[in-house]
Specification:
It contains 4 helices and 4 strands; from the N terminus they run βαβαβαβα. By secondary structure, the protein is an alpha/beta fold. The N and C termini lie close together (9 Å). The protein binds 4-nitrophenyl phosphate (4NP). The site of 4-nitrophenyl phosphate (4NP) has 10 residues, from loops. Its EC number is 3.1.3.48.
Length: 147
Amino acid sequence: MVKSILFVCLGNICRSPLAEGIARKVAKERGLDILIDSAGTSNYHIGEPPDSRSIRVGRQNGVDISMLRGRQIDRSDCKFDLIIAMDRQNYANISRLNLGSKLALMGEFGLDGAEIPDPYYGGAKDFQNVYNMLQSAINELFKEICK
Ligand code: 4NP
């Protein structure tokens, strides 16, 4: 049984905090006691709140991520049973850290291996698309975890 999950993107301000917020909500609804966190592979946004567009799309869907703060993945993250990367570049960078945790791509969960596209230089529609993809993948993830 997976007891801890870390979601990882590049900046830890757009995609992975949304994934963390959605997963926390789904875990709570299912009554699951799972440690859920997120991190970035880069050091670009350490200590910063999520991007305002991610906060907004989360809020529109009943997920509050405004209290989260950016951090960079580090060796202590080997404590997570499962680390889920948002795209292949992040997957490759996490893989190089040799943390020993099981590593997966978010798109492996019902999205045919699709990458969660970086919305940073996009608009509200791109953030909504990210939200929809994450919600679908995380529902699938919890179905698999609970098998
Ligand atoms: P994220 O999006 O990886 O989903 O948090 C990005 C955030 C910041 C940057 C790139 C992607 N950046 O280049 O600063």
